[in-house]
Specification:
2 domains
């Protein structure tokens, strides 16, 4: 009796959600099935439906979302670089440029952050703080332009390549905040303190964006190390 009621409730849920539960049932008789398997698969499908409703990204293919990425049938994540993209990355002159500009920009950021915090705490050093933010913004423009050239060399497009799509999206927020600071500075429409607070918002976004790239580059290093390990294992060699 309890078993029939359970089937009736589950069947009602399937009708409401428009899903065929039987298509997600595990093989075997009801007594042999894991008790949570049907509800777990049903939850995956419902969550996937919700994500599909909320995901309004117009560049779904570029971002790597497709039917093969659905939860009920997980697939291994795509590698960050294909072998050809990795080869192009290694020979591109912009790879070295990016490798130099990234730590330089971070050093400029640290110095500028010190000037900004000093002004906010003491009310002195406005010129030094403002000049440092302008230098930081110019460094950001430079790394964005050279980064798009690097992306073109490696992935064949200037922006929003699959591997760095969300990093590029967030970079535009960072760029917008830095540009808003320049507009506030040269227009005089915002008080000096307001300009410094706007710069802090831009710097907070920059830190998040930098963390995105660091995590992505660490993933690329692990991926490359794993491939080397697989190659050594196939040859019977130790790493």
């Amino acid at each position: 009796m309890h078993h029939r009621q359970g089937r009736h409730v589950l069947g009602s849920s399937a009708v409401v959600s428009g899903l065929d539960v039987n298509s997600f049932a595990t093989p075997g008789t009801p007594a042999e099935r894991p008790p949570q398997s049907l509800s777990r698969n049903l939850s995956f499908v419902i969550l996937d439906r919700v994500v599909d409703r909320l995901d309004c990204c117009p560049w779904g293919t570029v971002a790597g979302r497709n039917a093969a990425d659905r939860w009920p049938h997980p697939t291994p994540s795509a590698p960050l670089y294909t072998p050809e993209e990795r080869r192009r990355r290694d020979v591109s002159p912009w790879t070295l440029v990016q490798g130099v500009l990234a730590p330089v920009q971070f050093a400029i950021f640290l110095v500028s952050l010190g000037f900004v915090l000093h002004y906010l705490a003491t009310g002195r050093g406005l010129y030094a703080a403002s000049a440092s933010i302008v230098v930081k913004t110019l460094a950001l423009y430079t790394i964005m332009i050279t980064g798009s050239l690097w992306e073109r060399d490696v992935f064949g497009r200037y922006l929003f390549a699959r591997a760095f799509f969300w990093e590029d999206v967030f970079s535009f927020l960072v760029l917008g905040l830095h540009t808003a600071y320049l507009a506030a500075l040269f227009s005089g429409a915002v008080s000096a303190r307001g300009q410094m607070l706007l710069a802090l918002a831009a710097y907070a976004a920059y830190c998040i964006n930098a963390a995105q790239f660091v995590l992505k580059l660490r993933a690329a290093r692990r991926e490359q190390g794993g491939r080397r390990g697989e190659g050594h294992g196939a040859l019977g060699l130790s790493q």
